[in-house]
Design goal:
Elements: H1 3-38, E1 67-68, E2 70-75, E3 81-86, E4 89-94, E5 97-103, H2 108-116, E6 118-123, H3 129-137, H4 145-149, E7 153-155, E8 162-164, E9 169-180, E10 185-196, H5 209-212, E11 215-218, E12 221-224, H6 255-262, H7 276-286, E13 298-303, H8 306-315, E14 327-334, H9 346-364, E15 368-369, E16 372-373, H10 378-388, E17 394-403
Antiparallel strand pairs: 1-11, 2-3, 2-6, 4-5, 5-10, 6-9, 7-8, 9-10, 11-12, 13-14, 14-17, 15-17, 16-17
Bound molecules: flavin mononucleotide.
Length: 423
């Protein structure tokens, strides 16, 4: 090799090494200042997970994520209720608090909102996906979507629009203005009232997003909402000396803790059959739970008949996944065994402990299950009592759909040190 060529290579390598060193130094100083400002940045596993640096241009695409999959309720000119799915939607103003929803002129709902001056935004939880899909595929011009889906329209007491009884969260809006943007008309609706199912409220009466588990639309697929990450404004701080990113590689796990931490509410099942032996394992685990005064005030109904599972799925608003499940265990309190008036109420704790054992046992043998509440809702109780023809002294606490999980459901990290009060 010529001497000058060799020198050139040495020089180029030196420049490269220097550039890398400098850029690393810069990165470190940025990291340091953000650490100083906000805590434990350097403790994070690997910054390459947070800062993707190799970007590719995708052109003009609607890649704003996450997009809600909401269902808009309207009346047509004859007062007939209609629903339509909309993902081009979002909060657009704080005062007055308003929502913008964009609709194509070809939709039936477009004319409905324009003429009625109102709409409702119905937010589905993930298990209501099939209704969202239906409302987004068919037009109210051709079908009665409420009739076809079996959903129930209820008249809003505040605005001239219907909302969906079975959806957990409803926002009632009065049209204030609209803008023709090109393909879509953007309707601005002032929020007049919000209604939420009590089952999705936290102790302070606020909507708990993990209980709501809203459906997310992502172009080709629907997703459900993921795990809690951090409180707003707290995400850069250390929590109890640890970085806020949950440590899923928990060390010092034993088999029991692993099952406890990997249990999740499984709402999606494959069509693989579940055997009687497997169900018996779950029931044995259920009956191993502690009960007050050892009364064992319970009765377990095992449902495997397809028509019964489907019928319960149709009638119970939060147990739609029964249509995919291979079996269900209905945990009931047995009032003939529940004791006298004073401690009768323990049946709820006793049957809840049994339920949790069943859920953990399912996880431990590779099955999926989910607790769908029946008690204390009269309407759900009536459905279960009538469908399963339960005797008067058996009170259904819940329905647990069971099957082999698809990989769609994952465990949530719910560890929050701030919920613990050491004394
Ligand atoms: C997930 C999803 C999101 C949608 N988002 C919108 C939207 O934001 N705006 C719109 O005009 N149509 C949207 N559509 C299409 C309408 O829902 C569809 O055209 C529907 O049939 C209209 O119903 P209608 O004619 O009864 O009003 C969406 C459909 C799906 C499945």
């Amino acid at each position: 090799m010529q001497k000058s060529k060799f020198l050139n290579i040495v020089l180029a390598t030196a420049v490269l090494v220097l550039t890398v060193l400098l850029s690393t130094k810069n990165d470190k100083s940025v990291m340091k200042s953000s650490k100083n400002a906000a805590g434990s940045v350097e403790n994070r596993p690997s910054d390459s997970t947070f800062i993707p640096f190799k970007k590719r241009s995708l052109g003009v695409r609607a890649e704003l994520h996450p997009k809600p999959a909401a269902v808009i309720g309207t009346y047509d000119k004859d007062g007939k209720p209609n629903i339509m799915t909309a993902a081009w939607i979002g909060i657009s103003n704080s005062d007055p608090l308003s929502i913008a929803v964009s609709m194509r002129p070809a939709t039936y709902s477009y004319a409905n909102v324009t003429e009625s001056g109102a709409f409702t935004v119905n937010i589905p939880s993930a298990e209501l996906a099939k209704y969202v899909d239906y409302a987004g595929r068919f037009s109210g011009r051709d079908v009665d979507k409420f009739k076809e889906t079996g959903l129930t329209p209820l008249r809003s007491e505040f605005v001239n629009a219907p909302y969906i009884k079975e959806f957990p969260l409803v926002i009632e809006c009065e049209l204030t203005e609209y803008h023709d943007l090109g393909s879509h008309r953007q309707f601005i609706g002032k929020i007049i009232d919000v209604k939420a199912d009590e089952a999705i409220l936290d102790a302070e009466g606020r909507v708990d997003v993990s209980l709501l588990n809203p459906l997310i639309y992502a172009g080709r697929n629907y997703y459900e909402t993921g795990a809690f990450v951090a409180e707003v404004g707290e995400s850069l701080h250390e929590i109890d000396g640890k970085p806020f990113i949950p440590d899923y590689r928990r060390k010092h796990m034993n088999e029991t803790l692993k099952v406890i931490h990997s249990r999740k509410s499984v709402r999606h099942f494959t069509d693989q059959a579940v055997s009687k032996e497997q169900i018996e394992l779950l029931l044995q685990a259920g009956m191993a739970a502690p009960t007050a005064v050892n009364r064992q005030p319970w009765a377990f109904y095992v449902v495997t008949r397809r028509e019964t599972l489907d019928s319960l799925s149709e009638q119970l608003p939060y147990a739609k996944m029964l249509s995919q499940a291979q079996a269900a265990i209905v945990v009931c309190g047995d009032m003939e065994k529940a004791g006298n008036l004073k401690d009768k109420a323990y049946w709820v704790q006793d049957c809840s402990a049994a339920t949790q054992n069943i859920l953990l046992a399912a996880e431990s043998i590779g099955l999926g299950a989910v607790w769908t509440a029946v008690f204390p809702y009269d309407d759900r109780s009536k459905v279960v009592i009538e469908t399963l023809k339960l005797p008067g002294h058996h009170i259904p606490l819940n329905v647990i759909p069971i099957g082999y999980p698809t990989s769609e459901d994952t465990p949530k990290d719910k560890w929050k040190p701030e919920n613990v009060f050491w004394q």
